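Morning - zinc ion inputs below, output right after.
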Amino acid sequence: MKAAIIEEGQPHPLLKEVKEPGPPGRGEVLVRVEAAGVCYRDLLNLRGLMPRAKRPVIMGHEFAGVVVEVGEDVEGLATGERVAGLPYSTCGECRYCLEGRVNLCRNRRQLGEERSGSWAEYILVNARDVVKMPRHVDASDASIAGCVLGMLIHALRDRARVRPGEKVLVTGAGGGVGIHAVMVSKLLGCIVIASTSKVSKSEDVRLAGADYVLVGADMLSTKVKEVTGGEGVDVVVECVGEPTFDHSLRSTAWGGRVVVIGNVSVGEARVPLGFIILRENAVVGALGSTINSLREALLLLESGRLKPRVTKIPLEKSSEALEIIERRGNVGKLILVF
Ligand SMILES: [Zn+2]
């Protein structure tokens, strides 16, 4: 089968012909990949910034496809059914898995880093780590249900405990995650202020549903205060990380929460503790999706209320796709198709 692989010291993924995985073992299914998302994390992996990533490895952790073979002891999934997956494998046995917090599984292995990923014609995964796709949902849309849409539902609702009517600031709103953070926040009934570094993306961000679009990171917190009548926002979805973190914290209202879901610079941020104590601000992280939030993302796609912004690119162009992400040339998500 065709696969995009990272090899030690190579600056780009290499398209290679490799052996198909399988047959599926106990609890596993073999999936023919129909669509695989390209994530900023893939770029960090390529740059060697994911310490647990092995080499060589098939890249990619976002996918949707068709089950083509089912292992022993798999219940509720049959050949021919379409599925979307979590971006990692879980053990199903640790304390976190048993509590349904599978994103924190202690034996979690990231696809495309610690085990073979989705930028290939076939992928072998645990049946418990995929969810059946509703009919009529497009594979490209479903491929980002785990890493992006389910993650945002988890971040906003489970972690930031956002309520309808609250004001939400999304940083990096023009990016693959940010533009969907705008959409999901709107679906949760929030007033959305979106920040993007590029003037060229502001119209796209507005079309995604943002009530206010702020361009440029300079004076961001001042601008947020201006559009919120001096009060600030209840929740910040921090997609950029360290470069915008200080402004994000300064943009929050009393009792506001910053949920950090990305850190493009992989740098450290300074936290003024006065905000945490005297204003009861909270900084929380959110990691990946749970099975529940993945399922909810798929239901939102089925309902037609959530229409992801995706651009399809053939697998052969995975290298170009990563270059586009690196120079922030994309609006929405790039999806590799087969
Ligand atoms: Zn991802």
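Note: The CA atoms of residues 165 and 190 lie 5 Å apart.

O.
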